[in-house]
Amino acid sequence: MDKVFIEGLEVDTLIGAYDWERGIRQCLLLDLTFAWDIRPAAADDDLGKALDYAAVNQSVQAFADAARFELVETFAERLAEALLTEFGMSWLRLKVTKPGANAQARAVGVEIERSRS
Fold first, then answer.
1. Which of the pair, 117 or 87, is modelled with greater confidence?
2. By the 8 A CB rule, do 12 and 72 touch?
């Protein structure tokens, strides 16, 4: 299985369960890995057959702009569903990191793997 990845994608979103978090946008860092057959694009050196990173980035940012979740877990689950559906990939891994969420740690977050059913 070929994998295409985007690491360290920064998005600002409304995320958090505490009252003080509900009025501010916070940065999340995303690492995404997708199952994507690169052979058709590589065979013809054809950008049109490759996974469009810019389109993925735009989709993730639009999702983050509209999101209003309390939990990082919910953000990750819903984003994974949206990306699998929109881009037709069979599998993805998504790591969502929330820097500064815990004073004793550099960051907290979740990492999930999902596939289309």
1. 87
2. no
Give me the residue label for tokens 């699998």: 84
Torsion angles phi and psi, residue 72, rounded to 5: -60, -35
User: Bridge partners of 34?
Assistant: 4, 92
> Which positions are annotated as active-site residues?
98
**Angle subtended at Cα 46 by Cα 91 and Cα 116, rounded to the nearest 5 degrees:** 15
Domain ranges of the chain: 3-115
Residue where the block lists tokens 């998504």: 94
Which is nearest to 91 in space by CA: 100, 81, 101?
81
Tell me the percentage of the chain whose pLDDT exceeds 70.
Answer: 100
Both structure tokens of 45: 């050196």
Report domain 3-115's class: alpha beta
| pLDDT tens readout for residues 60-78 | 999 999 999 999 999 999 9
The pTM of this model reads 0.92
